[in-house]
Amino acid sequence: MRILFVFIGSILLALGGLPLPAEGAKILATLAWPGRSQYIFVENYLKGLAARGHEVTVINTFKNKATPNMRFIEALKVQEFHQQMLAELEASTLWQELNAISGLEEKIAAFTLDDEAVQKLMKSGETFDVVLAEMIEVPALYGMAQHFNATLVGFSSYGSDYRIDSQLGNTSPLSYNPSIMSPRTDRMSFCERLTNHYEYLVEMLHRQLVHLPAMERMYNKYYPNARQTMDEVLDSFALVLLGQHFSLSYPRPYLPNMIEVGGLHIAHKPQPLPEDIKAFIEGAEHGVIYFSMGSNVKSKDLPQETRDTLLKTFGKLKQRVLWKFEDDQLPGKPANVLIKKWFPQPDILAQTNVKLFITHGGLLSTIESLYFGKPVLGLPVFYDQHMNVARARRVGFGLGLDLYNLNEQDLEEAIHKLLSEPSFAKASAQISERYRDQPQPSLERAIWWTEYVIRHQGAPHLRATSRDLNFIQLYSLDTLFVLVGLPLLLVALLLKVSCRLLQGRKPKGCPYADKLKKQ
Predict the structure, then answer these.
(1) Residue 105 burial (CB count, 10 A)
(2) pLDDT (tens digit, 9 = 90+) per residue, 434-460?
(3) In angstroms, rounded to a whole number, what is the distance separating the alpha carbons of residues 185 and 197?
(4) Origin, by domain of life (predicted)?
(5) pLDDT above 90 for 185
(6) Buried-state track 322-345, b at ≥16 Cβ within 10 A, e below 16
């Protein structure tokens, strides 16, 4: 009997340590970006929430398969202008690039909020418990949280930057946090830190003078009876899920409600490959190279000269090449190249006979290559891709080339170096080992923290006081003035008074000399 009581007591104690169950919540996820990568980042996460009994509504820009407990609102109009909008990102100056990005985000928000199905949802009177917002600096979409009276949770597929840090009240020193659009890493020289600070000031100025005022006009247009102002919405994030991990990038400070979930999209058990791809990989005596430019940049739209360089170089290789190419035909395709419009990328990288990943350097692709221990050859195009490829070079798991100034010799030499020197694969395998050494998978961590915020009604206790301080208070400029400035001011006043007193004392003349002068 005593043993029975001990056994029952042990079970109750163990159950007492589990988190309180989060009742089925209504969750709305907004994914307005037309590139599929951002949705891939959270797809397993959203399905995981639905599998746990939550009602998940997803606004995205794709056709979707029916999934239990998930409702899809497909705002497809933006896809018609996707490539045109990406072409507009080409700019000669930073200010022009920022103008292009801001204009792109305005169009994305407008296409989404003008969608008939989205408007129907907004006028339905329906409410949600949580709004999950992709943090691409589109407050007009963040506004859905106040519209549906929901807790606002953000997610960022590229990790954090100064904008996200400022909204959460996090410390983000520019001395080792490079601009997300730069080719710099956390190890910067003096000149790089100087450039980093300059670009930060330009971005801040543009954000305050151009981007946020445009977003506020849009916010006021779509939410004329808003419960909160746009500034209040920007300050209302309860939690942010970051698509990064310190083992994949670099250590940096985070607040308790900023959760690293890099690799969230990777299934830990790779799925079987289609038979034709499986046979192509297994039949490659010298291994396989996988080449993909991601979901935003399409290989079929590359300049003909660049495509010819790739084709001629691949044709010389003894390895086989899997090329994600968006057309049915690729003129001049060598016999050792297999093209498809879509490949199951993680499942391919999981294959031991795949030796190298030629990539655009997007963060999801970089994480997948590291997870499976593959070296990379980066051909970055925009945004964080340059920084990701620069890090691959510095850490030693990859090399980088300029996609639009590609030549056969450089490309062939880079491929040969990555395949023949074991240090690249070794560095990637070491990072993979560090990343995999976690107490729980990223997917479980993301779901746990989301349900934590639901259980604790927005978890206001996680909010940092730094969000309520102005610039002078946050950096203690007022207290420093009292502690340092006033004593220095007092010393300066004493010196000034002393100088005046010394200047006022004139030496007395000799009375006898004065008499002689009079005579």
Answers:
(1) 23
(2) 998 989 899 999 999 999 999 999 999
(3) 14
(4) Eukaryota
(5) no
(6) bbbbeeeebeebeebbbbeeebeb
Quick check: 3 pLDDT over 50?
Answer: no
Measure the CA–CA gap between 255 and 464, rounded to whole angstroms: 8
Domain boundaries, the chain: 21-266+441-468, 275-436
Output the CA torsion sign for 196, 201, 205, 207: positive
Burial class (CB within 10 angstroms; exposed 0-12, middle 13-18, buried 19+) of 95 = middle
Contact of 142 with 59, CB cutoff 8 Å: no
Closest CA relative to residue 35, chosen from 392, 267, 383: 383
* C-alpha dihedral sign at 224, 226, 232, 234: negative
1-39: b (≥16 Cβ within 10 Å) or e: eeeeeeeeeeeeeeeeeeeeebeebbbbbbbbbbbbbbb
Burial profile 229-260: b = 16 or more Cβ within 10 angstroms, e = fewer: ebeebbbbbbbbbbbbbebbbeebebbebbbb
Q: Report yes or no: 376 and 398 within 8 Å, Cβ to Cβ.
A: yes
Kind of pairing, strands 398-400 and 288-292? unpaired
What does the alpha-carbon distance between residue 91 and residue 371 come to, in Å, rounded to a whole number?
34
Q: In the β-sheet with 288-292, what is the strand arrangement from edge to edge?
A: 337-340, 320-324, 288-292, 354-359, 376-378, 398-400
Closest CA to 35 of 12, 9, 61: 61
Report pLDDT digits (tens) over 152-172.
Answer: 999 988 888 888 998 899 988
Fold annotation for 275-436:
Rossmann fold (3.40.50)
DSSP code string of 7-42: HHHHHHHHHHTSPPPPP--EEEEE---SSTHHHHHH
Q: Contact, 241 vs 157, CB < 8 A?
A: no
| Phi, psi for 320 (deg, rounded to 5) | -90, 155
Q: By the 8 A CB rule, do 264 and 446 touch?
A: yes
First to last CA, the chain: 130
Q: Which of 16, 29, 165, 17 is nearest to 450 (CA)?
A: 29
Q: By C-alpha distance, which of 224, 258, 218 is closest to 242?
A: 258
Per-residue pLDDT tens over the stretch 190-218:
999 999 999 999 999 999 999 999 999 99
pTM: 0.84
Residue 504 CA: distances (Å) to CA of 445, 498, 500: 75, 10, 6
Highest mean pLDDT among 32-41, 86-95, 390-399: 390-399
Phi, psi of 327 (to 5 degrees): -115, 165
pLDDT at position 16: 41
Q: How far apart are CA 8 and CA 20, in angstroms?
A: 20
Task: Give the pLDDT confidence score for residue 505 in this predicted structure.
Answer: 61
CATH of 21-266+441-468, one of 1.25.40.10, 2.60.40.10, 3.40.50.2000, 3.30.420.40: 3.40.50.2000
Instruction: Evaluate the CA torsion angle 426, 342, 284, 348 in order and state its sign.
Output: positive
Which residues are bridge partners to 359 per DSSP?
Answer: 292, 378
